[in-house]
Amino acid sequence: MHSSANEITGWSLVLVGFVSGAVLGLGFDRDDFLGGYGSFRRRIVRLGHIACVALGMLNVLFASAVAAEQPHRALASALLIAGGIAMPLVCFLTAWRAALRRLFPIPVACLVAAAVTVLVGLLARTGTDVLQRSAP
After folding, report:
1. How far apart are CA 87 and CA 51, in angstroms?
2. pTM, whole model, 2 decimals?
3. Angle made by CA atoms 117, 119, 120, in degrees to the nearest 5
4. CA 75, CA 73: separation in Å to the nearest integer?
């Protein structure tokens, strides 16, 4: 069995999420860490950390289950990889420079397009299954 780009990207993102969480954990007990618990900077870094894990697992799930018979697999795969990398990256960049928050439409568009592509493929497959069952 070979590993797909989504599996490699997914597990890499999970690893980055775990490591970034460990690094963040080194300062969690300091009230002033990254501007304090409620600060925008600290919240956006936490979002980036969890986005790595969540979008990494979504890529792994896509590779192992959903995509098996997906007619639009290549497009959905590329969009999930792009969104999975771009979302935490934009979160971390925004924590560094707040003006970079204007980049958020990029990962959001990738992830929404990926979900739509997967759904279209699944609905097309479901429609084909229904037609095959009703054929004489």
Report:
1. 7
2. 0.82
3. 65
4. 6
DSSP readout, 82-121?
HHHHHHHHHHHHHHH-GGGGGGTHHHHHHHHHHHHHHHHH
pLDDT digits over 96-125, tens only? 999 999 999 999 999 999 999 988 888 877
Q: How far is Cα 111 from Cα 80, in angstroms, rounded to an integer? A: 6
Please tell me the chain's helix, strand, coil percentages from 3-state DSSP, rounded to the nearest 5. 85, 0, 15
Phi, psi (degrees; rounded to nearest 5) at 24: -60, -35
3-state secondary structure of 30: coil
User: In this predicted structure, what is the pLDDT of residue 29?
Assistant: 80
